Amino acid sequence: MKRDRDEAEEGNEERNKRKMEIVWQTPAHPAQKQDYVFHNGKRHVRPYYFEFVSHVNKRWEGKTIVDLFAQEFRGRSRDYYVSAVKCGRIQVDGENIPVSYIVKRCQKISHFLHRHEPPVMAWDVEVLQNEPDVLTVCKPASVPVHPCGQYRKNTVLGILQAEYGLAPLYPIHRLDRLVSGLLIMAKNPAKADSFRQHIEAGLVQKQYVAKVVGVFLDAEVGISNGDTTLKGKAACTKFTRISTNGIHSIVLCEPVTGRTHQIRVHLQCTGHPIANDMLYLSDDVVNRSTLGTTADRAAALSGGSPETSCESHKEEYKYCSEDFSIDPMCTHCPNLAPNGYDGHEEGLWLHCVRYTGPEWVYECPYPDWASLT
């Protein structure tokens, strides 16, 4: 009986191998226009096959291939990794290996899988200026600048390549995924290096606008990391109120230095955090935080775009075989978005409007939320 059962299992594995003979994508495959699916105000990416590559480090050395993945990459079950090794979706140095295989230092490990990217808002990446050596765009909130984490095609660089054929591009500064506004990109390494030299020499001035809670002071305010929980390098931001309606204020933000979340932290320190920033909202708006009003929900409650309304989240994507093929081993199919995607953090009221350097200025229009009338 046991031998019959083993033979049946081996037969099933062979059939699965035949079903899964797939041409795998690599990072060299660029995004294309047909890769995107638009639904309910969101830009989705059709799932695709992708090779994730890593190399065995000291901590991994001596582990079995299954133990390594089960312990280090816990997003999937141990049973999945066993099956992935058996059918060749996990390889070492380009070769199929048994589940008992023990990895050695510096070996190349490939994990071939059906990749589902999180959706972003369906707003266009608007080209502002297209010069011989420089491209500037208005980056939408929710879209990362370049491939990172779960994002590859749903990025500013991916979208520009797919929709405008613009590549290669070299971003000369960064904007957080939830921040919108001016993004400057060089079209060649020499121009990118010139911009970086200006930035490193302290010759570049940056301006953002933010929509904050309450009536901001009608005077220039300066905050440094000595006034906040920021540690390490010096960080300073100047703030000037542009307008207020008694409930919110539009504030011009001029970071003298650049640190992660610097503007958000410094606005919190003034007692006027960004009005839809769940991470840094202060005590006077704790009820909103308790109710779970994240960036897009707060925008909807304050008369934002219909695409960001709470109602829009009630309509789930219905799988369509024309959009993508179900993968029998994928832990995310049949959904377009990966499992566990929340979808409720789609934009902060923080927008980059101007970068000024030696003999150059680039600007971006103000967003709709910056008008309090």
TrEMBL record:
GO terms for biological process: enzyme-directed rRNA pseudouridine synthesis. The keyword Heme does not apply. It catalyses: a uridine in RNA = a pseudouridine in RNA. Keywords: RNA-binding. It comes from the Eukaryota. Residues 133-268 form the Pseudouridine synthase RsuA/RluA-like domain. The keyword RNA-binding applies. PANTHER family: MITOCHONDRIAL RNA PSEUDOURIDINE SYNTHASE, PSEUDOURIDYLATE SYNTHASE RPUSD2. This is RNA pseudouridine synthase 7 isoform X4. The lineage of its organism: Eukaryota, Viridiplantae, Streptophyta, Embryophyta, Tracheophyta.
